[in-house]
Design brief:
Length: 919
């Protein structure tokens, strides 16, 4: 036993199997106890020292376990799996004297674990061979098998061995290949292939093996269809569809799965639904699809958003109606469901189809279709009247339109700082152990993303460090055991670019527990944290300066509490409350921390109320005088300069410019505020300097990890918007997702909502990623609900960005559609009415203009156009030749204006000619 432990400590893993086999059962049990102690001891070693003994420890422990369950747990231990070359062959030698049944049990237990590498598969399959049992077909084992096949395929490519040949010679293919259809997700090696038409990928190989009889073809087809019906990841769905298509279903096999095709056409992903639609078309052409079945599946397909599928289904219905005119009574009401589609071209297709096949003598059907046609907009009014007469009878009287906007956000007060040690420790541990180190929720406000909890915890630490130091120390040490930022001590000079609220909290806790020395804290307080490189580093530098200052406060009894703790969830501070805190400071004889007081000034509501200013001045302290002057001035931290651009060309002296890469930029500059540089700590000076916009990449955490940005200047939304504009510019171009997640918090800030806020919102509405566009839509609705949205200004800013090639119209259309769908039709129409004249003036319509016009037309039909000025260029666009989406939707929007007189589309004339011919 001692020899075995000595060999393990020396890392001599090759000597271990022989030493294990030389021990009897009692000796192995005794050795196992020593190995467990060694394993526990090694967890505290440096990684290089751990790595030296890892293989030997794993082999020895596996060989000394007498139970299969314990052996499987030992082999699967994550702390023993850091090796580069597998020690499994040595483990097989060490287990060479075990009973086959015991080895089979071990194989099954290991296969049930998340061991999915090629080495794991080889090891478990060898255990199964030694045990004389089938290989366990678990998900993890199938993944390991797929990786082994992938490796074999890569090595065989030089010899031009196809995948089919590799699988055909694999001894486990008949057991493991069917399991692919039962897994929740396919292994990555199986689902990826370059082309669906390739003959050397998994679908082709499996279909070939099924045709050869190696695999059961009928079972393969059945499982493919079952997986498609069940749904799943799009990549997996395409894999099973390709396999099904390559299997070559017979007519009988297609007909026997009618219900499956119906379900797939209705609910499958687009490519699967298209295939099911093709199969249903073949069944209908062969007379194997009844009229009722066709009507049922058509009702589902016509409701789908994919225009291609809807067009194809209308064609299928047209063929059925052309073959048998008696089906009109059952099929035409289904066609009429397209009247609710937002695409005007599809609406007209449906109208034409109904006009062609509507029986002249069926008044009941005509009345039913007339009611459905009430969904159509003003553009089709003349057509529908010619086709059905008066639509839907007399329309019920409607009241005035009411805009549906979300409730305006209400300021919510922060709960007081934790008053007891238990409550504070729970708050701190929750932030340091969990989500505070992770990105915040996209679009979340400051309250939802942790700023409130951070501020309460920071204030609580300062308070209870003064009154309950011993109890708090003991409780924090116990609760935060194992938290790396506390156990190891925070970095001595953390960088502002990577500062987060959790990092700041860890720094303060580390100082309180003595993990950071007093000298390091003093150095941190002296250090200038405002690097001056970008707004992100400056805002993070303010947080870092506050953290160092609080780290010193918790080591002493200098202050009773913090001054900058917000009153409301946005980060704003009630000036009367700040006066009360300063009064308490005066009573205690405490001197406010420079960073803490500076942050309090930036957060205080500058309402200009003379009563509060007088109360501050009456304190008779320097801080009271500064607060009174700050409130009376009521100036922004940094005034924003307008860009002075129009949507036709850049004007002189504005902030339109080209970057080094030639990309256009529309950014905003801010003016100097000397007071910030004269009276605030040095770490705040960046905020008061003049800044020319620059979109160069900088390195910092994104908005999802920095909710404190908005809470640093909660009363200066315009200034923040100007400083964070480069992020939004990149978000609208090719930048990463997350740049617009700050917008919902930004629009909740105080101060005016001017050109900076609206330009920032414009960038967000044209963001590259859907998640960012959703955040921008949320911000748009909040700004409108607070009656701070200038729709004309936002529309003009959108036109400027489109005109300078900084915003894609197709993305703007998506954002506008999302906002309108919430019920904000008048708001969206007001924005688009201001943006459209510029877009309609282009000689070549930008991509997505038709979709944008469709959204505007939908809004106009919902809310009316009484408050909207005529849109320049709309009539000219509607009068162009052709039937493009842009022309059609322009005509539809024009028809929504009271003075418009749209032409009657040709469908009405077609119906009149059809009726005359019948007569």
């Amino acid at each position: 036993m001692n020899d075995l432990l000595t060999a393990v400590r020396a890392g001599a893993h090759r000597e271990v199997p022989a030493l294990v086999l030389g021990l009897d059962r009692a000796g192995r049990r005794a050795a196992l106890a020593g190995l467990k102690e060694l394993r526990k001891e090694a967890r505290g070693w440096e990684w290089q020292r751990q790595d030296k003994i890892r293989k030997a420890l794993q082999v020895a422990g596996a060989g000394c376990h007498t139970g299969a369950a314990g052996c499987a747990d030992w082999i699967g231990g994550r702390d023993l799996r850091g090796w580069s070359r597998s020690p499994y062959p040595l483990i097989l030698v060490a287990l060479g004297d075990r009973d086959p049944a015991w080895l089979g049990d071990l194989a099954r237990r290991l296969a049930a674990k998340s061991l999915d590498s090629e080495a794991d598969f080889t090891f478990i399959s060898e255990l199964a061979r030694m045990a004389g049992c089938p290989v366990p077909a678990t998900d993890s084992l199938v993944e390991g098998w797929a990786e082994r096949i992938s490796t074999a395929r890569w090595h065989a490519r030089s010899g031009r061995v196809p995948l089919t040949g590799i699988l055909r010679s694999d001894p486990h293919v008949t057991v493991l290949a069917p399991r692919l259809f039962e897994m929740a997700e396919l292994p990555a090696q199986v689902g990826w292939y370059e082309s669906a038409d390739s003959a050397d990928h998994w679908p082709a190989a499996l279909s070939t093996l099924a045709a050869e009889g190696v695999l059961d073809r009928s079972q393969l087809v059945e499982r493919c269809v079952t997986r498609l019906v069940r749904g799943g990841k799009p990549g997996d769905q395409r894999f099973f569809l390709t396999l099904l298509q390559q299997s070559g279903l017979t007519e009988d096999e297609e007909a026997s799965r009618l219900q499956d095709w119906t379900v797939l056409a209705a609910d499958g992903i687009s490519v699967v639904a298209s295939h099911a639609q093709d199969v249903l078309g073949r069944l209908d052409a062969r007379g194997e699809l009844s009229v009722r079945e066709l009507a049922e599946v058509s009702g589902s397909v016509l409701f789908r958003p994919e225009k291609k599928l809807v067009r194809a289904q209308l064609m299928l219905l047209g063929k059925a109606l052309g073959r048998d005119t008696t089906t009109a009574g059952e099929l035409l009401p289904v066609v009429a469901e397209v009247f609710g589609n937002e695409d005007i071209a599809l609406q007209e297709r449906a109208l034409k189809l109904i006009a062609r096949h509507l029986p002249a003598a069926d008044e009941a059907l005509r009345e039913e279709l007339s009611l459905a046609a009430a969904q159509l907009g003003p553009l089709h009014r003349d057509t529908v009247t010619a086709l059905f007469g008066a639509v839907g009878g007399e329309a019920p009287a409607e009241g005035p339109y009411e805009e549906l906007l979300p409730p305006a956000p209400v300021l919510s007060r922060l709960d007081p700082a934790p008053r007891t040690v238990a409550e504070l420790v729970e708050e701190v541990a929750a932030q340091l152990k969990s989500r505070s180190w992770q990105p915040a929720t996209p679009g979340a406000s400051a309250a939802a993303s942790g700023i409130s909890g951070f501020e309460r915890a920071l204030d609580g630490l300062v308070r209870l460090a003064r009154t309950d130091r011993a109890e708090l120390t003991e409780a924090l040490q116990e609760a935060l055991a194992g938290v790396w930022s506390v156990e190891d001590g925070i970095e001595r000079q953390p960088e502002p670019a990577y500062m987060t609220t959790a990092y700041a909290l860890a720094l303060v806790v580390g100082s309180f527990l003595g993990r950071i020395s007093g000298e390091a804290v003093a150095e941190g307080k002296r250090r200038w944290t405002g690097t001056g490189t970008c707004a992100h580093a400056a805002l993070n530098g303010v947080l870092l300066a506050r953290a160092w200052e609080a780290a010193g406060d918790v080591r002493t009894d200098r202050v009773p509490f913090l001054l900058a703790t917000p009153t409301w969830h946005t980060g704003s501070l009630d000036p009367a409350e700040l006066v009360g805190r300063l009064r308490t400071y005066r009573r205690f004889g405490a001197t406010p921390g420079p960073a803490d007081f500076a942050q309090a000034l930036l957060r205080v509501c500058r309402s200009g109320e003379e009563g509060v200013a007088e109360a501050a001045a009456d304190l008779g302290t320097p801080e009271g005088d500064r607060l009174a002057a700050w409130i009376r001035a009521g100036e922004p931290v940094a005034p924003v300069l307008r860009h002075g651009l129009t949507s036709d060309r850049p004007s002189a002296g504005n902030w339109w410019r080209r970057s080094a890469s030639g990309v256009r930029q529309v950014l905003l500059a801010t003016r100097e505020r000397p007071l910030i540089q004269e009276e605030f700590p040095r770490s705040f000076h960046w905020l008061g300097r003049p800044h020319v916009p620059d979109s160069r990449d900088c390195y910092h955490w994104g908005a999802e990890q920095c909710p404190h940005w908005a809470a640093t200047l909660p009363e200066d939304g315009e200034t923040l918007a100007a400083w964070l504009m480069p992020d939004l510019l990149r978000t609208a171009d090719e930048g990463p997702r997350g740049g617009a997640w700050v917008l919902p918090s930004l629009v909740e800030t105080g101060g005016g909502a001017g050109v900076a806020m609206h330009l920032a919102l414009a960038y967000g509405l044209g963001a590259r990623h859907p998640e960012d566009r959703i955040s921008a839509v949320d911000a748009l609705l909040v700004l409108a609900a607070r009656d701070r949205l200038d729709t004309a200004l936002l529309g003009r800013e959108l036109a400027v960005l489109v005109d300078h090639e900084l915003l894609k119209v197709v993305r703007l259309a998506d954002s506008a559609r999302t906002a309108a769908a919430t019920g904000a039709y008048r708001t969206v129409l007001g924005v688009l009415a201001a943006a459209l004249p510029t877009l309609l003036a282009y000689e070549k319509a930008p991509r997505g203009l038709g979709d944008l016009l469709a959204v505007a037309a939908e809004c106009a039909e919902r809310c009316g156009t009484e408050e909207i000025e005529p849109i320049a260029g709309l009539a000219a666009t509607a009068g162009r030749k052709g039937t493009s989406q842009t022309v059609r939707q322009a005509a539809r929007l024009l028809a929504a204006f009271p003075t418009a007189s749209p032409s009657v589309p040709e469908v009405a004339h077609e119906q009149q000619n059809t009726t005359e011919n019948r007569r």
